[in-house]
Backbone:
């Protein structure tokens, strides 16, 4: 049986002293805050990109990022990977040559917080529309989102973190937390690679906004249903319709909104 990957351990959280005001009275207390550090990915000996991330499961982040950016097709492309002890540098040696300088020139900073980046190597036109028998009920999506929020240890402790997960419709299979919403998808994909778990046909849940970059990552994973606690963008809605994905937003309590692929959502 596939085991649930914890959202985080408390390495995702730090503490600091703050002055809290309540009823106009000030008190010095210790508060939890999410951790954020830079992670330099060095590919074949050359600096590729620096991501801002929460230093938990950095190996999964690196593998998932390289896969979802189209730089690798699987673990067989990776000859060696080493993440330093403080999780600020990851050295990756591939089994083939890659023009890292050319990749760096294509780098685009992604929308939102978390210091994300994309190299734009995945062409939406090259992704076939997803044909899958997977369906889901509104009640299933709402229950899975509630489970996602209850499993987000770092968020519950400090707030300020995004969480994403894959589900088979009954339970959460892989779950990841990070300051960057893009990073959560990379970590989820990396865990799938490390555990030989195929994400295709599963349901992706996330607490973050679904931008076009997020939607393309989901399509690259072969995920037919994407559900978010917040909103998709207009471009992600258009891409979901073009690629045959079901895109659900504002999954909160008893409500949700289906923006694309409503045929997969059943009563």
Residues:
């Amino acid at each position: 049986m596939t085991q649930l990957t914890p959202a985080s351990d408390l390495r995702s959280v730090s503490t600091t002293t703050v002055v809290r005001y309540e009823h106009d009275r000030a008190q010095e207390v210790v508060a939890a805050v999410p951790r954020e550090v830079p992670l330099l990915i060095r590919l074949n000996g050359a600096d590729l990109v620096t991501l801002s991330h929460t230093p938990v499961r950095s190996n999964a982040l690196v593998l998932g990022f390289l896969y979802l950016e189209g730089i690798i097709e699987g673990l067989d492309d990776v000859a060696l990977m080493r993440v330093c002890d403080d999780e600020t540098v990851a050295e990756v040696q591939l089994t083939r040559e890659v023009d890292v300088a050319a990749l760096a020139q294509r780098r685009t900073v992604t929308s939102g917080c978390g210091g994300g980046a994309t190299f734009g190597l995945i062409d939406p036109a090259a992704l076939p529309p997803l044909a899958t028998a997977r369906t889901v009920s509104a009640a299933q999506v709402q229950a899975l989102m509630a489970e996602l929020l209850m499993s987000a240890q770092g968020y519950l402790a400090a707030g300020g973190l995004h969480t994403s997960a894959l589900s088979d419709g009954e339970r959460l299979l892989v779950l990841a937390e990070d300051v960057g919403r893009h990073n959560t998808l990379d970590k989820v994909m990396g865990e799938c690679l490390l555990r030989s778990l195929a994400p295709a046909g599963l349901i992706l849940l996330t607490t973050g906004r679904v931008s076009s970059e997020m939607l393309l990552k989901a399509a690259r994973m072969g995920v037919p249903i994407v559900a978010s606690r917040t909103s998709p963008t207009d471009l992600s809605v258009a891409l979901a319709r073009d690629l045959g994905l079901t895109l659900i937003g504002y999954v909160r309590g008893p409500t949700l909104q289906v923006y694309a692929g409503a045929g997969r959502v059943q009563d």
User: Anything to note?
Assistant: The longest strand covers residues 13-22. The chain has two domains: 37-121, 136-266.
